[in-house]
């Protein structure tokens, strides 16, 4: 009887520690990402898996600054049914070493006028050729809003690219471009 109670207690505790709605990357991250090479320049979110029909092209302006990853992305975001143009700034955390296998946790802020919404962006690079495409799993966690959403995105350095350069990478992961929604505005 004590064993059964102990098992019930342990299982209850284990599930209580797991946040509900936690994002889970379904694919293995690239083990030896060249961080400085990847986070340099612009990437466009041209395709998204698991996105809505309102999936919008985003320009990720990336750079390394003082050993930190910096990512800026401006665009329309919809929160609680209201679409607004937000300025978004993200940064990795000082003092936390960057692991080439990721994931990279960035602290972010959406700004619209005097309104600020803070969130964490977990960014896992599944594959990239550094010059044309990157297959990335991203998870946005808005603790203050109780929102947690993850999806697989195809980033490209040319916003008009059709995604064909990522075809073999997708195929190796039993995926194809038809499973993704083309974002609008790219």
UniProtKB/TrEMBL annotation:
Assigned keywords, A-Z: Hemostasis impairing toxin, Secreted, Signal, Toxin
Compartments where found: Secreted
Keyword Manganese: no
GO biological process, one term: symbiont-mediated perturbation of host defenses
UniProt cross-references to Pfam families, sorted A to Z: Triabin
Membrane-spanning ranges: none
GO terms assigned for molecular function: toxin activity
A GO CC term assigned to this protein in UniProt: extracellular region
Principal location class: secreted
Stretch forming the signal peptide: 1-16
Family, similarity comment: Belongs to the calycin superfamily. Triabin family.
Name of the protein in its database record: Salivary lipocalin
Native source organism of the sequence: Triatoma matogrossensis
């Amino acid at each position: 009887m004590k064993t059964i109670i102990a098992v019930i207690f342990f299982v209850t505790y284990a599930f209580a520690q797991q946040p509900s709605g936690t994002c889970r990357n379904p694919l293995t991250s690239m083990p030896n990402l060249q961080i400085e090479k990847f986070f340099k320049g612009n990437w466009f979110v041209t395709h998204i898996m698991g996105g809505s029909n309102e999936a919008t092209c985003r320009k990720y302006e990336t750079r390394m600054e003082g050993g930190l990853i910096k990512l800026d992305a401006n665009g329309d975001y919809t929160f609680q049914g209201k679409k607004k143009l937000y300025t978004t700034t993200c940064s990795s955390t000082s003092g936390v070493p960057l692991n080439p296998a990721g994931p990279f946790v960035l602290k972010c802020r959406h700004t619209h006028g005097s309104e600020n919404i803070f969130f964490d962006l977990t960014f896992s690079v599944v594959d990239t050729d550094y010059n044309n495409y990157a297959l990335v799993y991203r998870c946005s966690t808005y603790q203050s809003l109780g929102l947690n959403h993850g999806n697989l995105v195809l980033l490209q350095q040319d916003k008009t690219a059709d995604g064909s350069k990522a075809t073999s990478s997708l195929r190796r992961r039993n995926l194809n471009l038809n499973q993704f929604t083309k974002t609008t505005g790219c």
